[in-house]
């Protein structure tokens, strides 16, 4: 499978729902994208669910890994 998956996340800063595209190539990766609403840097972590679907967890910069 090599398709981008669209999902929506909640911004950890402003709580707005944002649609994001997850690239399977990013599995296990962490990256930062600015919120489209409040422009703060959201940390994304891409992982795979038990069912094989891509999921993304989001963290604010205040929350350490
Ligand atoms: Zn935001």
Describe the protein.
The protein has strands spanning 5-10, 17-22, 30-34, 41-48, 54-59. By secondary structure, the chain is mainly beta. The chain contains no helices and five strands. The protein is globular. The model has no long low-confidence stretch (mean pLDDT 91). The chain has a three-stranded antiparallel sheet with strand order 3-4-5, with no helix packed on it. The protein has one domain (5-59). Strand 3 and strand 4 form a beta hairpin. The structure holds zinc ion (ZN). Residues 11, 13-14, 16, 35, 37-38, 40 line the site of zinc ion.
In short:
By secondary structure, the chain is mostly beta strands.
Architecture blueprint of SSEs:
Layout lengths: L4 E6 L6 E6 L7 E5 L6 E8 L5 E6 L6
Antiparallel strand pairs: 1-2, 3-4, 4-5
User: Can you give the mean pLDDT?
Assistant: 91
Give the ligands present. Answer: zinc ion
Task: Give the fraction of residues assigned to helices.
Answer: under 10%
Instruction: Estimate nothing, just give the exact number of structural domains.
Output: 1
In order across it, which strands form the biggest sheet?
3-4-5
Tell how many strands the DSSP assignment holds. Answer: 5
Quick one: biggest sheet?
Answer: 3 strands, antiparallel
User: How far is the N terminus from the C terminus?
Assistant: 29 Å
**What are the low-pLDDT stretches, counting only 5+ consecutive residues below 50?**
none
Number of helices: 0
User: Element order, helices and strands?
Assistant: EEEEE
| Radius of gyration, taken over Cα atoms and rounded to an integer in Å | 12 Å
The backbone outline, from C-alpha atoms, is globular
